[in-house]
Design brief:
By secondary structure, the protein is of the alpha/beta class. The chain folds into two domains: about 90 residues, Rossmann fold; about 70 residues, Orthogonal Bundle (DNA polymerase, domain 1), CATH 1.10.150.240. The chain contains eight helices and four strands. A four-stranded parallel beta sheet has the order 3-2-1-4, with helices on both faces. Strand 2, helix 7 and strand 3 form a beta-alpha-beta unit. Helix 3 packs across helix 4.
């Protein structure tokens, strides 16, 4: 039995494609491609910046990745940028997430998010999804200025909960 369950936010708890899905009608000719490129470039930017030891706020990288996705996807509507960024702040959580987190809380274990997302991004998504009362913490790598999967990022939860690495499920 673990003492803590710590989840990634984007792609695990929250559907990163829900921002475009909500506004597919204004994105342009290929909204699915815009969403796919946006997510891939967002991750690529974190990996490159970690390798270079050149941290930049995840929200900035998210906006830059969207700029790239809109620019390289033919037929995209560049005027939808702000609408999509606003939607990213309130991504939909996957349907099973609230129930899974509630069941874990019933077992008296810690539940948290560990994410590349900035504190403002995480708070907004958690509040929008109604998860505030079932998550104990939201760990943002913004506090240490290096992206996952650097080992220091996972140490944040271990240190906060004063537990051994084998007592937490990431």
């Amino acid at each position: 039995m673990y003492k803590a369950y710590v989840f990634d936010a984007y792609g695990t708890l929250f559907d990163v494609h829900s921002a475009v899905s909500r506004h597919f009608d204004i994105v342009g000719e290929n909204p699915a491609r815009v969403s796919e490129v946006w997510r891939n470039k967002q991750l690529e930017y974190t990996w490159v910046r970690t390798t270079m030891d050149r941290y930049k706020d995840f929200w900035q990288l998210t906006a830059e990745a969207l700029d790239f996705a809109l620019a390289v996807t033919p037929g995209s509507n560049l005027d939808c940028k702000q609408t999509l960024l606003d939607a990213y702040m309130t991504l939909d959580c996957y349907a099973e997430v609230p129930l899974v987190l509630k069941k874990l809380k019933e077992k008296s274990v810690k539940t948290a998010i560990l994410s590349n997302g900035s504190p403002k991004m995480l708070s907004s998504a958690v509040e929008h999804a109604g998860l505030t009362d079932i998550l104990d913490d939201q760990f943002s790598i913004d506090d240490i200025g290096i992206f996952k999967a650097d080992p220091a990022t996972y140490k944040m939860a271990i240190d906060k909960y004063n537990i051994e690495p084998n007592q937490v499920a990431f």
